[in-house]
Amino acid sequence: MNTTLWIATGLLAAVALAGGVSKAFVPRETLAAHHGGEWTGRVGAGFVKSLGVLELLAAVGLILPAVLGIAPIMVPVTAACWVVLMVGAMITHGRLGQFAFVALNLAYLALAAFVVWGRLGVEPFTG
């Protein structure tokens, strides 16, 4: 189970890193021109960049606390925050009729919920 949870956490961290880099460093206009990124044209550039920074922090919070053995409880806490973020993403994409992205966000939400469940109950980090 530990290996499965690490794989799930690694996948989530990769998603968070990719999303964070794109939102933090790619111009909003470029994001808005791509399918799935249309919502960025409807919000401020600061919001998009802030969301990108939060996603970068999520990538770090999913991996480093456990690897370094410093506050490993932050891994399921970060995964729980990711669940909340995915609810917002699902609402945003749903409003735009982008149901394939809603399904993708639901998959990420399920993966994050699995990490929360696993790290808080089944296979917690022992310190």
UniProtKB/TrEMBL annotation:
Q: Name a single GO cellular component.
A: membrane
Domain of life of the source? Bacteria
Q: From the record, give the transmembrane residue ranges.
A: 56-87, 99-120
Give the way it sits in the membrane. Answer: Multi-pass membrane protein
Quote the protein name from its UniProt record. Answer: DoxX family protein
The record's keywords, sorted A to Z, are:
Membrane, Transmembrane, Transmembrane helix
Tell where it localizes: Membrane
Q: Which organism is it from?
A: Streptomyces fructofermentans
Supply the InterPro entries for this chain.
Answer: DoxX
